[in-house]
Specification:
Shape: globular
Number of helices: 13
Oligomer: single chain
Order of helices and strands: EHEEEEHEEEHHEHEEHHHHHEEEEHHH
Number of strands: 15
Largest sheet: 7 strands, mixed
C-alpha cells in the first residue's frame, strides 16, 4: 500500500474514465425513486451529490446536504452481491439434437468496477468469498467466482455512520483494512471536493497512476481523515454485543422472546433480500415447448419463505417464530460453526428495511437480558 494521494472531483472523473477505458463496467451509487441504489455511472455527476440518507428502524429517507460531498450517504437497499451472485441466473442450458444433448455455452463473465464499496460491504464480500470460493477448494459457485475475479473494488471509508449502523461493534468498519484495489476517505468541506486515495493492490496502483499526476496527502489532510474515522467509530447508531453470542443464542432456542418477535414479523423476507451476506437460493428446471431445450436457473430464496423448508409433504419450519429464529441464529451463531466468522457485518440494512422496524441488535440484547418485553432497547451513546 502506498501513502495516500489527494484527488479532486476532476481527478475522480479521470479515474472513472481510466476504468472504463480498461473495459470495466463502472457501477456506483445513484439516486433513483428517492433512494440511493447502484447503477452504471459515467462520471461523478451520476453520484448522489447533495444528498444524504436518514435511517432508523423501518424508516429511510433522503435529505439534502449542501457541502458537495460525493459520498455523503451510508448504504441503500442494494448490496454488491446482486452483481456477483445475481438474483436470477441460468447455470445450465442444453438442447437435444441428433447428436445427443448439446450444452449451450455460458456467456463471458462481466468485468465490473465497483465504486463506493463501504467497509461493511467489503467485509460482506470477504464472507461470500469464503462461502463460495473456499481456500484450497474448487468454487462452490462458479458464476460468483468468475465475476469476483474480474471485479475492481473502490472502497469508501465511512465518516458519517447512519442511525442503524453497528459495524464498529462487529469489527468491519468504519475503515476498510484490506480486500480493496483503491480506498477513498472523503474530507470534502465548504464545497471543495477532496478525496484521500490509497492503493491496496498492484492493479490499484496502476489505475491510480493512470488517473494523473496526484499530490501526496499532507500531514494535516491525513490527520483530518483519521479524526473523521475515529469520530465515526464513536457515533454508530447502534451496537451489537458479540461476546459469547453463539452460546447465548444456542442456549435460548425456546426463549419466549422469539414468539414476541414473530408477533411483529411479517415474514416478508426484506431482511434477507437487502442483506449483503445472505446467500440462500433455489433451483428451477424448465423446458421450452417449441424446442427441445432445457434450462436450469438459480434464484434467490429466503429462509423466511414457507416453501424453503418444504420436505416430503410439509414445511420443517412452519411458524414465523421458527423462521426468524433460524435466520438470526444462523447469522450470529451457526455461521460461526460453519465458517469461523459472524454472518453479520453491521450494515443495518435489515433494521432499516424491515417494514415493522425489527432490530437485530435490540433482539439480541433483549435475549441476553432475559427480557420478554417488546419495547426498544436504549441505544448506545452517540445514537441519533
Amino acid at each position: 500500500m502506498n501513502e495516500p494521494v489527494v484527488m479532486d472531483r476532476a481527478g475522480f472523473d479521470r479515474l472513472i474514465s481510466v476504468l472504463t477505458g480498461r473495459g470495466y463496467e463502472v457501477v456506483g451509487p445513484t439516486v433513483q425513486a428517492s433512494t440511493i441504489v447502484f447503477d452504471n455511472i459515467e462520471s461523478s455527476g451520476d453520484l448522489p451529490v447533495g444528498w444524504t440518507d436518514h435511517q432508523e428502524p423501518g424508516n429511510y429517507r433522503l435529505e439534502h446536504r449542501d457541502d458537495g460531498k460525493l459520498f455523503g450517504y451510508v448504504v441503500g437497499p442494494h448490496s454488491w452481491k446482486q452483481y456477483l451472485n445475481p438474483p436470477e441466473v441460468v447455470i445450465w442450458s442444453g438442447e437435444l439434437t441428433e447428436e445427443g444433448i448439446t450444452t449451450r455455452p455460458a456467456p463471458p463473465a462481466p468485468r465490473y468496477a465497483f465504486i463506493g464499496v463501504r467497509p461493511c460491504e467489503l467485509a460482506a464480500l470477504g464472507i461470500l468469498d469464503h462461502v463460495y470460493t473456499p481456500d484450497g477448494f474448487e468454487p462452490t459457485n462458479r458464476i460468483y467466482a468468475e465475476r469476483r475475479s474480474n471485479a475492481f473494488v473502490v472502497a469508501v471509508n465511512c465518516t458519517e455512520p447512519g442511525g442503524t449502523c453497528f459495524c464498529a461493534s462487529v469489527g468491519t468498519g468504519p475503515t476498510a483494512m484490506s480486500g480493496y484495489d483503491l480506498a477513498i476517505t472523503e474530507v470534502t468541506s465548504d464545497g471543495e471536493v477532496k478525496l484521500l486515495v490509497e492503493a491496496g493492490s498492484e492493479q490499484g496502483n496502476e489505475v491510480l497512476a493512470a488517473a494523473g499526476d496526484l499530490a501526496a496527502a499532507t500531514e494535516a489532510e491525513t490527520a483530518r481523515a483519521e479524526q473523521l474515522l475515529a469520530a465515526a467509530a464513536e457515533a454508530m447508531g447502534r451496537s451489537l454485543d458479540t461476546d459469547g453470542i453463539k452460546e447465548l443464542l444456542y442456549g435460548n432456542a425456546t426463549h419466549p422472546r422469539w414468539k414476541s418477535i414473530a408477533e411483529r414479523c411479517l415474514a416478508c423476507a426484506n431482511c434477507t433480500l437487502v442483506c449483503p451476506t445472505c446467500f440462500c437460493n433455489t433451483i428451477e428446471d424448465s423446458m421450452e415447448l417449441a424446442a427441445p431445450v432445457a434450462t436450469r436457473t438459480r434464484k434467490w430464496d429466503s429462509c423466511f419463505s414457507l416453501d424453503f423448508t418444504y420436505l416430503h409433504g410439509f414445511a420443517v419450519r412452519e411458524s414465523t417464530t421458527a423462521r426468524y429464529r433460524q435466520w438470526m441464529t444462523h447469522k450470529l451463531a451457526s455461521w460461526i460453526d460453519q465458517y469461523g466468522m459472524l454472518g453479520c457485518v453491521g450494515c443495518g440494512r435489515c433494521i432499516t428495511w424491515c417494514p415493522v422496524g425489527i432490530d437485530i441488535t435490540e433482539e439480541a440484547a433483549a435475549i441476553r437480558r432475559g427480557d420478554l418485553r417488546v419495547g426498544p432497547v436504549p441505544a448506545p451513546g452517540g445514537a441519533r
